[in-house]
Design brief:
With about 55 residues, the chain is α+β, with helices and mostly antiparallel strands. It is built from 1 helix and 3 strands. It has one domain. Strands 1-2-3 form a 3-stranded antiparallel β-sheet, covered by helices on one side. Strand 2 and strand 3 form a beta hairpin. The longest helix is centred in the middle third of the chain and has 16 residues.
């Protein structure tokens, strides 16, 4: 079983996975935005960052 989407982070780069396959490698400073866009693509819904708690 694979996660629908996930990341594995390193010191400077992170890898984005979707359904067990590598989607791409990104700088850590951009991985959050790329992750949100991938989740939006999977769900077909826009994610409002205002509603997220950090």
């Amino acid at each position: 079983m694979h996660a629908d989407v996930g990341i594995a982070g390193g010191k400077e780069k992170s890898v984005l996975f979707s359904k067990g396959k590598i989607i791409g490698r990104y700088d850590n400073k951009e991985i959050f935005d790329v992750l949100i866009k991938e989740v939006e693509n999977i769900t077909g819904e826009k994610i409002s960052l205002d509603s997220m708690l950090f």
